[in-house]
Amino acid sequence: MDEQVKVLVAEDESVSRQILKRTLENWNYDTVLVNNGDDAWKILNKEDHPRLVILDWIMPGMDGLTICRKLRERQDDIYSYILLLTANAEMDQVLEGLEAGADDYLVKPYNPIELKARIKTGERIIRMQQELVRTRDRLQIEATHDNLTGLWNRATIFELLEMELAREARKLKPVGALMIDLDSFKAVNDNHGHLVGDQVLKEFANRLNAGVRSYDLVGRYGGDEFLIVLPDCSIENALLLAGRVLKAVQAYPFETDAGPIAVTTSIGVTATDGNELIPPDSLVSRADEALYIAKRDDQKQVAVLPLDNSETTPSN
What we know:
- The protein has two domains: 6-142, Response regulator (Rossmann fold), CATH 3.40.50; 154-315, Alpha-Beta Plaits (2-Layer Sandwich), CATH 3.30.70.
- Mean pLDDT is 89; it is low at 309-316.
- It contains ten helices and 13 strands.
- It is elongated and about 85 Å long.
- Strand 11 (265-271), helix 10 (280-297) and strand 12 form a beta-alpha-beta unit.
- It has a six-stranded mixed beta sheet with strand order 7-8-6-11-12-13, with helices on both faces. Strands 2-1-3-4-5 form a five-stranded parallel beta sheet, with helices on both faces.
- It has helices at residues 14-26, 37-44, 64-74, 91-100, 112-144, 154-170, 185-192, 194-211, 235-250, 280-297, and strands at 6-10, 30-34, 52-56, 81-86, 104-107, 175-182, 217-222, 225-231, 254-256, 259-261, 265-271, 302-304, 313-315.
- By secondary structure, it is of the alpha/beta class.
């Protein structure tokens, strides 16, 4: 750990508390001192609480064992290493402390070298656990997001659509869907290369996000095709949002290494009526049909295809 590590010391005996403070600060630890268990628990409930914790077993208010149990029940993402101080070296009591959630213990009076060894062990454990959390979060993002655009990937946006359909059906609320693709994107790759094509896709994703509501879900469905899920959105409002997306995408050319490129898009619009649960593939298929009609009739266009009506409504 590069930054100064915080250590919480909960010890009711003032001389011992000050000795611990001086010792830890000499080892370059940032020390937080309290003299009772209740204050220790308040600090441990703060978001940026110390991850290295030294607890006296017996102290006013909440005792060390109770704090251990409560802290472990919380199952924080970032682990707290607990060193329990006890005046009793009986093995059954030591075992009780470890079973309550303490990582290690020291019997008073303790050797400073032994204390340092315990603290260094705790620091290594916390560092390894933080790295595991970072790796888990990175893998989760990689598993659910498109690597190029940062949007939800195809599998995840489909799962999110399924969840929204089920949730809104329970509330008798409609769900809208926009299927969108870039017009003549193959020409961008053919004329300028795939690196420029990637730049266009990234900027296209940014503009899609700029054109929708904060709680709408935007995913890359495949290639240059994108799906936007619109919770609590009628087909009329979905059409309005499609117009906003169209304006956001086509407002001005995309800046690329090959210079400015004017990009146009086509959008297929559909929505449930909120009266029944619709399979997600039915909604996606209908939006895809509407997209096909938008591209067939004219580029730079939006087409609407209701689920219960085959009539389409093109809109420039």
